[in-house]
Amino acid sequence: MGNLTNCFQLLLKKVGLNANAKDLNKEIISLEIGNFTYHFKEFPKGHLIIYSLLDNESKVSSDTQLNALNENHFSEQLVQPIFSYDQKNEKFILWNRQSIPLITEQTILDQLEAMVSSTEAIQAKLNKNETDEQLSVPPRALHTISG
């Protein structure tokens, strides 16, 4: 079994689900939670990436895109999701990554929970009518980086 399969089985064990190893022997494993699909992939080698594409029901202005990018602040959270935009597909992407050798049942669950929370929050902001309210991103505590 590959790294991806082993990681995904840790997650399934943690949440009390079973899956056939044959079903998990893929380059990308997808999991639907609520209205979103989370894709698991080993990328680059030795790292687990989880990503999700967000729906854009209508064109999103440049201002809204820039405001949404405020979600990409430094954080103490090790698996903080990163928010970006794919111009080719005109979709927002949310992703995070961690080193496979460090993954435990708890860390992979933490990684997925961070994705679910951020995906739901950002999608709700994107769905708001821009004329009613601009994205309001709560300020995050910034930490001083000293060298």
UniProtKB/TrEMBL annotation:
Domain of life, per lineage: Bacteria
GO BP terms in the entry: protein secretion by the type III secretion system
InterPro entries with a match to the protein in the record: Tir_chaperone (IPR010261)
Residue runs in coiled coils: none
CDD domains hit by this protein: T3SC_IA_SycE_SpcS-like
SUPFAM superfamilies documented for this protein: Type III secretory system chaperone-like
Gene3D superfamilies assigned: 3.30.1460.10
Any Pfam family hit: CesT
Listed name of the protein: Tir chaperone family protein
Gene source species: Vibrio azureus NBRC 104587
